[in-house]
Amino acid sequence: MKPRLDGQVALVTGANSGIGKAVAMAMAKAGAKVGINYVVNEEATQAMIDEIKESGGEAIALKADVSDEGEVKAMFAKLFEAFGTIDILVNNAGLQRDAKFWEMSVGHWKKVIDVNLTGQFLCAREAVNEFIRRGIVESVSTASGKIICMSSVHDVIPWAGHANYAASKGGVKLLMQSMAQELAPYKIRVNSIGPGAIKTPINKDAWNTPEAEESLLTLIPYKRVGEPSDIGKAAVWLASDESDYVNGATLYVDGGMTLYPGFATGG
Ligand code: NAD
Question: What is a GO molecular function of this protein (predicted)?
Fold first, then answer.
């Protein structure tokens, strides 16, 4: 039986493209009411809401920059006004601003840390306040709340040319683990998903030509590039009571990218 999220409210950040979109749609399909956070492209957000409603689900659009404290607070207020509470937060919004280390501007450094790391802190803090205020609702879930941090294989694999991104995801790893440790007594579960290479706009150059894809596959023992739906399925399971004893874990959904593929034939 597939995991279900009936009667639960989920907020997915950066949810109108790529991985966030797949996660939001999968959660809606599993029965959750979904808050779809976005910063740009209102039409794509509305199209998702229409699709969810046509299938009998519920969703609302929540425009907010996750790195802005005021906008995050306003987003949660709007979510509570519509759906009353929150049960699942998926901290997915993220971006890259790549540069050689010695040429990286402080602006690009700060932008990536602000969105990828501070954004996760700001959203998690609002969600945790509500989880603690409301406590467990037994008919809904065995936990009082679940947080899924979208990390990356680059929370363990260093990444030349992407020092700001790798630093932000390394930060997410210990933010997630520290939250998991501190919040477990309140029955709040906090975990990460570490995607490998997933076909989305963020890494299009790495897979949108046959040559690029072939080169990328040398890093993936399972020999296929991931799809956003691979992450959607993992997120639904991590948010459901099927994973009730999983806390403080990073689930790498990466076709084995974290397995040091270079050592398969050498070492
Ligand atoms: P994407 O570019 O399709 O999605 C990122 C989303 O975040 C977009 O909707 C974007 O508008 C949104 N966003 C950016 N800045 C924001 C802000 N300030 N506030 C709110 N939303 C904002 O890329 P994706 O691949 O779907 O990325 C989703 C997450 O997955 C990111 O955290 C990324 O680091 C992570 N990830 C992706 C891959 C991959 O291979 N695609 C691998 C590892 C990790």
Answer: oxidoreductase activity, acting on the CH-OH group of donors, NAD or NADP as acceptor
